[in-house]
């Protein structure tokens, strides 16, 4: 996080801060630039950097004023023990409301000429953070959210659109309806679709337990080009499971632990890439990246980890 932004979160300050994030990546020679999502930040819920509230609060037929009875009802929902309050309350059929991802993208895209990734939270995670008084059926709620988001995705021509599903790894039994809803969005992506999965990055901490083995069927069902996965914090013993991943799905390997303040060396990152390549074979590792977002780390640490990422890539490739 850029510390000075909290003191002056104006639109101009947000654009300036985003330019800092982008320039940092450009100087580090990152191949695909991301915007850092700073313009989504919610000072009242910093643990997720706006990954949830930014998407659900503007939707139509969704209420963001949370009552005491809402909090009590939400506390009984499965898989949300790390949240005290729902992100919002669903009181009717999901509509677009004032959500405007298209113009958010149009404001950010001119800030770099590099290949650009735009991220959107997936319908499984969004639906589970809501208190639903209308559908009373998670798959139906998730599918309607997916339809609304897909309509906007069709107008976003980012080089890569990454859909983030950080709750499913802790609830693998929900994979079939989660995949069906996510595919609605994946099919709307104009260029390169990607899916990010992790075991939580809530306030810089993991909040779920599980294994990648239980998610291979889910990943194989996705209409995606590659998956972006957490590994550095978990270790690499589970790589064997990915031998069963469809060959046309590229693997994005997490090589930087964003839940630690220790700076990885380029040698360690190169070693992690080499190990994964030895286990899974040539050309299976299509991308390397941090496990999740850097927003909980101090800027100096995040910058150093970004630089280590590309130096480790260069070392592995013999640049």
Question: Any overview of this molecule?
Answer:
- With 319 residues, this protein is an alpha/beta fold.
- The mean pLDDT is 93.
- The protein has a single domain, classed as TIM Barrel (Alpha-Beta Barrel), CATH 3.20.20.
- The protein starts with a helix and ends with a helix.
- The relative contact order is 0.11.
- Helix content is 36%, strand content 17%.
- The chain is globular and about 55 Å long.
- The chain has a 7-stranded parallel sheet with strand order 1-4-6-7-8-9-10. A 3-stranded mixed sheet has the order 2-3-5.
* CATH topology value: TIM Barrel
Mean pLDDT: 93
Number of helices: 11
Strand order of the largest sheet: 1-4-6-7-8-9-10
- Strand residue content: 15-25%
Q: What portion of residues is helical?
A: 25-40%
List the domain count as a whole number. 1
- Backbone structural class: alpha/beta
Distance between the termini: 31 Å
N-to-C SSE series? HHEHEHEHEHEHEHEHEEHEH
The 3D shape can be described as globular
Number of strands: 10
């Amino acid at each position: 996080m850029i510390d000075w932004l909290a003191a002056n979160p104006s639109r101009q300050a947000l654009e300036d801060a985003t330019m800092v994030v982008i320039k940092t990546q450009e100087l580090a020679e990152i191949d695909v630039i991301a915007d850092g999502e700073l313009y989504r930040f919610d000072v009242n819920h910093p643990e997720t950097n706006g990954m949830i509230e930014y998407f659900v609060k503007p939707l139509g037929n969704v209420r963001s004023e949370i009552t005491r009875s809402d909090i009590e009802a939400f506390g009984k929902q499965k898989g949300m023990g790390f949240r005290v309050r729902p992100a919002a309350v669903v009181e009717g059929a999901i509509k677009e409301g004032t959500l405007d991802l298209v113009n958010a993208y149009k404001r950010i895209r001119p800030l770099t000429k590099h290949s650009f990734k735009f991220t959107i939270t997936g319908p499984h995670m969004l639906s589970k953070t809501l208190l639903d008084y209308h559908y009373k059926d998670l798959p139906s709620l998730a599918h309607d959210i997916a339809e609304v988001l897909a309509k906007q995705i069709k107008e976003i021509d980012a080089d890569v659109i990454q859909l983030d599903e950080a709750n499913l790894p802790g609830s693998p039994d929900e994979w079939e309806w989660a995949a069906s809803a996510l595919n609605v969005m994946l099919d709307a992506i104009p260029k390169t679709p990607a899916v990010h999965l992790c075991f939580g990055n809530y306030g810089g901490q993991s909040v779920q337990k599980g294994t990648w083995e239980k998610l291979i069927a889910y990943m194989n069902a996705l209409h995606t080009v590659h998956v972006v996965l957490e590994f550095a914090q978990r270790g690499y013993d589970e790589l064997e499971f990915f031998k069963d991943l469809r060959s046309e799905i590229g693997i994005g390997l997490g090589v930087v632990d964003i839940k630690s303040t220790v700076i990885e060396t380029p040698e360690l990152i190169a070693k992690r890439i080499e190990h994964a390549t030895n286990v899974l074979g040539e050309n299976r590792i299509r991308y390397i990246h941090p496990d999740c977002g850097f927003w909980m780390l101090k800027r100096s640490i995040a910058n150093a980890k970004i630089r280590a990422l590309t130096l480790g890539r260069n070392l592995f490739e013999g640049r």
